[in-house]
Amino acid sequence: MQVYLDNNATTMVDPQVVEAMLPYFSEQYGNPNSLHKFGTSTHPALAKAMDQVYTALNASDNDDIVFTSCATESNNWVLQSVFIDLVLNGDKNHMVTTEVEHPSILATCRFLEEQGVKVTYLPVNDQGVVEAHTVRSFITDKTALVSVMWASNETGMIFPIKEIGEICKEKGVLFHSDGVQAIGKIPVDLQSLHIDFVSMSAHKFHGPKGVGALYIRDSQKLTPLLHGGEHMGGRRSGTLNVPYIVGMGKAIELATTNIEETAAKIRKKRDRLEDAIMQISDTMIVGDRENRTPNTILVSVKGVEGESMLWDLNKGDIGASTGSACASEELEANTVMLAIGADNELAHTGIRLSLSRFTTDAEIDYAISHFQNAVKRLRSISSSYAVQQPTKGGEAKDC
Ligand SMILES: Cc1ncc(COP(=O)(O)O)c(CNc2co[nH]c2=O)c1O
Fold first, then answer.
1. Is the CB of 70 under 6 A from ligand 1?
2. What is the CA(203)–ligand 1 centre distance, in A?
3. Distance from the CA of 9 to the center of ligand 1, in angstroms?
4. What is each CA distance from 106 to 27, 101, 111, in whole angstroms?
5. Any bridge partners for residue 94, and if so which?
6. Would you please indicate which residues are annotated as catalytic (active-site) residues?
7. Does any ligand 1 atom lie closer than 6 A to the CB of residue 180?
8. What is the DSSP string of 243-266?
9. Tens-digit pLDDT profile for residues 80-113
10. In angstroms, what is the span from residue 95 Cα to ligand 1's centroid?
11. Which residues is 350 bridged to in the sheet?
12. Residues in a beta bridge with 122
């Protein structure tokens, strides 16, 4: 049995999405900017995809949705262009973000610091989330942007976006959220809160890799990151990737239709896996499950290196991760676990398990059994975890 539990890294493209995309590879393959029928025949599909994204996010007609190549591009666009608009060409010099953002935010912030921007990296609490009052205390009259992720890719923990939006509105500061791990997993209603920019990525909700979008509230000014061609109303140049945009529209429609019902089904499976893991001694789950995306578990297994567990799971045809794949080649400690105060040893034991709507009960049963046996195997050879001694007259406790 193969069990894929790394859906926060990427998801399988829903077969219905593949079906929707196919005609735009070799039948209606024209360039949408071409005036002939080969090009203009793609326009209805593009309009439908745009409508699907607006509807899924309850965006207003006054807002813009701009398709990009990925959320990394969307994140870079917001941070670099706010720098151009409000720092280089304005009187601001400060940005606020958190210590646990995705590398596409943190690396861009470090780039902007090299350009002279002051960046505040807010700490997170023991749940791995930043608290809204902390954001308030670091905003000054020089703050150009607040950027806080909607939900963590590593823990699934959901950040107080509504409260932070109200603070930014009150302070007159632009607010961006990296919505990649929230959109398609939990309800997102953009008209119910104050947020200026939201990044998203199709391959996190069963769409294709290589297409994302940026939501821009009320057509807020934002200098383009990519110039030349004036596509997307001059917001982002580059020939539109018609099949992928069509795929993103279909994927977000499928992911957000009856989202509460879907989330409940995923949560039930996740909680069953999590309950079984918590029965194992010396395990710790990061973040309370009530304020977490329904599909994610970040678990620390004392005495077991995260990479060793990944290797053992992989031998059993179970795919998981220790955190964001972009860091998976390095034997680094889990940054979020370090941020919530775990010591370095504990931070090397993090394993992230992330389910999807395609995860089955049989797969969860298999994962539970393999995970329990893997812990026994790995602890028995662990130099840092003493094997439990047999209790008086009884068997050694299960590890
Ligand atoms: C919160 C967040 N932001 C941005 C990105 C980048 O999105 P992309 O540019 O469209 O790929 C990711 C991908 N996160 C992960 C990729 O691999 N493991 C992860 O957790 C993410 O989780």
1. yes
2. 9
3. 6
4. 41, 6, 9
5. 118, 143
6. 326
7. yes
8. HHHHHHHHHHHHHHTTHHHHHHHH
9. 999 999 999 999 999 999 999 999 999 999 999 9
10. 21
11. 300
12. 98
Q: Which of 149, 95, 88 is CA-nearest to residue 119?
A: 95
SS3 211: coil
pLDDT at 389: 46
pLDDT at 301: 93
The pLDDT score that the predictor gives to residue 397 is: 46
Ligand 1 centre distance from Cα of residue 202 (Å): 10
Per-residue confidence (pLDDT) for residue 90, from 0 to 100: 97
Residue written as token pair 């060409």: 89
The 10s digit of each residue's pLDDT in 128-152 is: 999 999 999 999 999 999 999 999 9
Cβ-contact 148, 97 below 8 angstroms: yes
Q: Ligand 1 pocket, 324 CB below 6 A?
A: yes
Ligand 1 pocket residue status of 71, Cβ below 6 Å = yes
Flag residues of the chain having pLDDT under 50.
324-327, 389, 394, 396-399
What global pTM score does this model have? 0.94
Question: What residue type is assigned to position 87 of the chain?
Answer: V
Q: Quick one: which atom of ligand 1 is closest to the CA of 202?
A: 10
DSSP 191: G
